Amino acid sequence: MQPETEWMRSSSSSRVRIAGIVGIGTGYNFTERWLTGEVPKLHREDNEYVYQRPSQYSETGYYEVPVSMLLNSREFLLPETGRIEMGCPVTFVHGTMDTDSKYETLVSLAERIDGKVEVVTVEGGDHRLSSEEELCVIERVVKKMVNDVSRINQTN
């Protein structure tokens, strides 16, 4: 799962001030797409049902996804159109060969976010971004965000 996408929308309006967001292999509203496009119709409102979502990354060949979680995520969905105010800088790290969360979808999302947004493209990277080189890119991005946010907080 990608929990950062489930709270992105609500984070900027919560009492705790979020200083910056780094999204890695970010997908958004995927819970709704799974619920309406993959979970069998008979079980889409069944809080007890656990969907076995196929995954090439799991040893079992699937992840267990409770429909209750998919239904509960609805209040955190990002709008599909219009501008999105995050209230803090956002940096996405995304691979061009990500078949789980399409690169083009992420770019489309980034274009709709107001404020400071950066997309760091990892050529040939897949969803996991787990090679040593890709992990170095992620480390560099996180360190840059921490430094940028620290600098902003020191001037305020």
Automatic annotation (TrEMBL):
GO terms for molecular function: hydrolase activity, hydrolyzing O-glycosyl compounds. InterPro entries: AB_hydrolase_fold, ABHD10_acyl-thioesterase. It comes from the Eukaryota. Keywords: Hydrolase. PANTHER family: MYCOPHENOLIC ACID ACYL-GLUCURONIDE ESTERASE, MITOCHONDRIAL, PALMITOYL-PROTEIN THIOESTERASE ABHD10, MITOCHONDRIAL. This is Alpha/Beta hydrolase protein. It comes from Jimgerdemannia flammicorona.
